[in-house]
Amino acid sequence: MSELIPVRTLDPSNNDLASVDTPVVDATRHNEAVRLVKGHYQRLRRWLSGPLILLFLIAPWLEINGAPLLWMNLEDHTLHLFGLQFWPDDLLMLTWLALASAFALFIAANLAGRIWCGFSCPQTVWSMMFMWVEDRFLGSRNKRLKEAKLPWRQRNLKGLFMTHLLWWSMAFVTGFTFVAYFETGQGLAQNIISGDISIAVTFWLIFFSALTYINAGWLREQVCMHMCPYARFQSVMVDRDTLKVGYDIDRGEPRSSKVKNKPSSKTSGDCIDCRLCVQVCPVGIDIRQGLQYSCIDCGACIDACDNIMDSINKPKGLIRFMPDSGQSHQVRSRLRLVGYSLALFVSIILFALQVLSKESFETSVNRERGQLYFYSGLNIANGYTFSLQNKLNQDVQANIEVLQPSDLTIKMNQPISVSAGEKRDFPFTLLCQQPCALDRKTNIDLKININGETFSLDNHFFNPDH
Ligand code: SF4
Ligand code: SF4
Fold it and tell me: To test the ligand 2 pocket, which listed residue (245, 305, 310, 314) has its Cβ within 8 A of the most ligand atoms?
C-alpha cells in the first residue's frame, strides 16, 4: 500500500464535535428548522429542477403520436415514452435506456459527488418546496424554533393551517401525477370529476399523496440518510478528484469572532463561527468537521458562507466544491470516469440502434395444427393462421398474396384489419386445383402488405396426391 488515509485529530473539548457525522443508528432529526438562504447554488437548483418539475407535471397531459409523453398502459402492457411505444418484447431496448441513465448518474457522481441528490432528486426538490411554504406561513427559522416551545393555543394556528393545506395540495398534485402516468391525465381527471373511480385507483391516489406529504413534510433528510439505496452505494463512484462540498480548513481555522475587515493572520482564520452553514444545512451537519457521508452536496452552506464572507469583506469560497485530493483540482488519470463514459456511449448507441430498427408490426404465418391438408371441392387445401400485432397508434389494414408457387390461390373469410395496439389472428386457406402439380412438400412464399409496408413470410404446402 503506497497511500495513507489522511487522519485529523479532533479536540474532544470542542462542542462542535457533537455534530460530527458519525454513522447514525437512530432516526434523530438533525435540523428540524432549516434556515432558507439565497445565493448562486439555490438559483442553480431552481434552474435545474424547474424544467424537470414542469416535465413531471405535463408528461401525462401532453400528447405526442396520439399518446401522452409518459403512459404506462397496464391494460395493453405497453409503455409510451416521448412518442415511442414499447411492448414487453422491447424489454432489452429499455434495458439499454435504463443503463444509459444509470451511467449518466455515475458520471455525475464521479465528477461532483451527490449533485443529483442536492440539485435534482425529487426528494430534495420537494423538501425544499415544502420548506419554502413553512418559511412563508410560519416565519423564519428563529421564529419557528421559538414557537415550537410555546403551548399549542399560543402558536400561529392560521399559519399552521395554511402550511398543511398547501403541503397536502402539493402532495395531491404529485400523487395525481404519479397515478396519471398509468391512467393518462385526461382519463384520471374525467374519472374523478364523474365519480367513476375504482378502489385501486383511489388507493394509489391516497398512497402517493400521503407518501409525498410524509416524505417532503416530515421525513425529509431521514429519507436521504436512512431510506435511499442510492445514498448507500454512491460513495463507491467517487475518487480523489471528485468535487465535493468542503470547508477550507487552512483558511478558516482557527475560528474567530466576527470582526469586519479583520485581515487573516496566523492566529485567526476567516471563519467567524456564525454557524449559518449549519443552520441552512438540510441534513443538519457541520461541514467544517470534514467530509461526511450524509452531505448531499446541495451547496446551501456555500451560499450561506459566501454571503457572510461578502459581509465581512473576505473572499468567497471558504466553503466550496473541492476535490478530496487537495485545495485545487488536479488533473489525474481518471480511469473510472473514462469507463463510465464509454459505458454510457455504448448504451446510448445500442438503444438508438434498436429504436431505429424497431418494427411497427409483428407478423407470422403458422400452419393449422392437427391437419396437414383437406379437400375443398376439387381443390387440395392447407389451412394457416396469419397473426398480426399492430404496434402503431393507428388502425391498419393488410392483405396477403402468394408469390410462389403460382399454382396456389388464397381464400380468406374476412378482411385483415387490426386496431391500434392490438394483436389478432386471421385463418386462411391455400388451394391447389386437382390434379395438383406441386411436390409432396413445397416451399411457399407469401407477400404481406400492411399500410404500404411489405413483408415476406414463408411456409410449406402439402400435396397428398404426389
Ligand atoms: S453540508 Fe452543505 S452541501 Fe452538504 S448537505 Fe449540508 S448544506 Fe448541503
Ligand atoms: S458560514 Fe462560514 S463563517 Fe459562518 S460558521 Fe460557517 S464556515 Fe464559518
Answer: 305
The residue whose CB lies within 8 Å of the most ligand 1 atoms, and thus the one to mutate among 119, 245, 278, 279, is: 245
The answer to whether the CB of 273 is under 6 A from ligand 2 is yes
Whether the CA torsion 373, 375, 379, 381 is positive or negative: it is: negative
- Please tell me the number of Cα atoms within 13 Å of 110 on its side-chain side: 16
pLDDT digits (tens, 9 = 90+) for 387-401: 999 888 788 999 999
**Nine cell digits for residue 118:** 442536492
Q: What is the pLDDT of residue 18?
A: 47
With contact defined as beta carbons under 8 Å apart, do 461 and 438 qualify? yes
Q: Is 274 in the pocket of ligand 2 (CB under 6 A)?
A: yes
**What pTM does this model have?**
0.80
Domains (range + CATH), the chain: 15-58+113-237 (no CATH), 361-462 (2.60.40.10)
The crossing angle, in degrees rounded to 10, of helices 300-311 and 40-58 is 150
pLDDT for 293: 82
Rounded to an integer, what distance in angstroms lies between the CA atom of residue 408 and that of residue 461? Answer: 9
C-alpha cell at 399: 392483405
CA distance 206 to 302: 38
What is the rounded distance in angstroms from the CA atom of residue 346 to the CA atom of residue 268? 52
- DSSP β-bridge partners for residue 426: 386
